Amino acid sequence: MSKLRKLLSGSYVWLVMLFFYLPIFYVMLFSFNQSKSLTNFTGFSLQWYQKMFESRSIREAIYYTVIIAVIATVVATIIGTLTAIGLSKSGRILRNIVLQINDIPMMNPDIVTAIGFMLLFTSLNVEKGFGTILLAHISFCIPYVILSIMPRLRQLDDNLAEAALDLGATPFQALTKVIIPQLKGSIVSGALIAFTMSFDDFVISFFTSGPKISNIAIYVYSSIKRINPTINALSTIIVVIVTTVLIIVNVVPMIRERRKRGNSK
After folding, report:
1. What is the CATH number of the domain that holds 62?
2. How far apart are CA 99 and CA 117, in angstroms?
3. Domain presence at residue 15
4. Distance between CA atoms of residues 236 and 240, nearest Å
5. Which phi and psi (to 5°) does residue 125 adopt?
6. 164 falls within a domain
7. Residues 57-103 pLDDT 10s
8. Which of 119, 150, 180, 198 is the most exposed place for a label (fewest CB within 10 A)?
9. Domain residues for 166?
10. How many CA atoms lie within 13 A of 206 on its CB side?
């Protein structure tokens, strides 16, 4: 009976992995297809990668996606970190109220948030474009940063900052040299989540972008009505980049830890 359960659980895991990763491998395979067919692999070719880099619309979509994600991540990380630190020093009632409000954007459906931003910009007569989509991305990225940092702040000793001040440090020095270094891991995690959410967003971007602004998600959506193998090439490059970054982020700390253990011995 126990062997049957192990077999079923193992089969279930493999089925789930296959369900998630088979479409990705399928897209990667047909990004090298010689023809436009998405069902028949006629031969190996790099023509779709060449056409992707030659396409001005794709280059612009990549540019806007990356620049918006980077700016939104930097701003959201700074605001979210300072807000989390400030909340940790605030009263319990105020902290709980702000944290409850902070959870609303993450629990709220994207379509509701997107329509809310669209109505806000329309009521203020703000022309939709780069600025509106950037403000929207910063707004929905901040809660993720706060949520990533708050658990680590609860683990810190409340006397660290006071001890630094007693030893002659200024409030700014206590913040940058005592508190923030203790939050480094949580800040990086929050920034990565913010970057991912901004890079991957479609619904909010679609409702807050103007006619001249298009990120990768919007470009892909506008191309689904026709067969466009360059989308496969673009998706493959994104998957390779994301996988490489994840490997580096996870492997480099392991290598450093092993070196520290080797040096300690």
Report:
1. 1.10.3720.10
2. 21
3. no
4. 6
5. 55, 40
6. yes
7. 888 888 999 999 999 999 999 999 999 888 887 888 888 888 888 88
8. 119
9. 55-259
10. 14
